[in-house]
Design brief:
Blueprint: H1 4-24, E1 29-32, H2 37-49, E2 55-58, H3 65-72, E3 77-80, H4 86-92, E4 97-98, H5 100-110, H6 115-123, H7 148-164, E5 167-170, H8 178-187, E6 190-191, E7 199-200, H9 208-217, E8 240-241, H10 251-258, H11 260-269, H12 272-279
């Protein structure tokens, strides 16, 4: 259990990051708001300092209905939408499965211009190697890629940013993944020098425990999706990234019970049945 001092220390660090970011850009900033617990805590914290900071929600069409409803209940939230629908991304580029790194490598190897280039990518001479555990995916009878997040989530936000000139504040944490941890070590919480563009990650040093402690301490309303059985994350419903790390029931098994309409769509109409059968995942 967190001590009071530990939580307060994390809050102060996050506040300092927010103030630095806000003042550096003279208030020309915005919050990327997913409706999940992390961005909910960050939104509350940021607006405790600057109540008028705008927030942007990318409505991908893949969010849980409970999340979308929660977002629409918040104030000063601009909703943006992708220009390419999920089914079009899957059709053109492929399904998001296993992890971004694995899906990206499978896509790159499959789209090599020559056997020489293919073998170099496969071995890791070019970029990271594809783990032997997942090389069977190269023979999958369907497309695989990491492109979904770029088209569905990031593109609408970047479009908003380009239109307004505002700089983003994002509710992500280093504990979420190794790439985020490495990014934190390289750039810190306020990543002014990030190659893809400056962004602030005020709660980068937090963990899930800190987030829930903050929400409880300040009685922050959160999406009712978290009250559903087994739900710990509210990312895109149809995403296959990290599925192999799920316990039982996994996200698709839970979806069958909690959101049968969405389950029917992804499993039978979008072809996820074939994908899950191929990787041996229950649904």
């Amino acid at each position: 259990m967190l001590s009071k001092n530990e939580l307060e220390g994390k809050i102060e660090i996050a506040k300092n990051n927010i103030v630095e970011w806000f003042e550096y850009w003279e208030g020309n900033v915005f919050i990327t708001f997913s409706g999940g617990k992390d961005s909910t805590a960050m939104l509350h914290l940021a607006r405790s300092l600057y109540p008028d900071i705008p927030a942007v929600f990318s409505n991908t069409g893949l969010e849980m209905p409970e999340v979308v409803l929660f977002v629409k209940q918040q104030e000063n939230i601009e909703i943006v939408r992708p220009q390419m629908a999920f089914h079009k991304v899957v059709e053109k580029y492929g399904y998001p499965i296993i992890s971004k790194a694995v899906a990206q490598k499978v896509y790159e190897i499959r789209h090599s211009r020559s056997n020489f280039a293919r073998n170099r990518k496969l071995s890791g001479e070019i970029g990271l190697s594809l783990p032997k555990t997942y090389r069977y995916l190269l023979a999958a009878p369907f497309k695989i890629s990491d492109k979904c997040c770029n088209f569905i989530k990031k593109e609408p936000i970047k479009r908003y940013q380009k239109k307004t000139g505002r700089k983003p504040m994002i509710g992500i944490m280093a504990a979420d993944s190794r790439p985020r941890l490495l990014s934190w070590k390289k750039f810190g919480c306020n990543a002014f020098g990030k190659k893809s563009g400056p962004e602030s990650r005020p709660i980068m040093s937090w963990t899930t425990e800190h987030v829930w402690a903050y929400i409880k301490k300040y009685n922050v309303p959160y999406s009712k999706a978290y009250d559903l059985p087994g739900v710990h994350s509210t990312g895109c419903m149809f995403c296959g990234f990290g599925l192999q790390m799920d316990g039982r029931p996994n996200r698709f098994e839970r979806m069958k019970e909690t959101h049968p309409k969405q389950y029917e769509y992804i499993i039978n109409k979008l072809g996820m049945r074939e994908v899950l059968d191929f990787i041996g995942a229950p649904y």
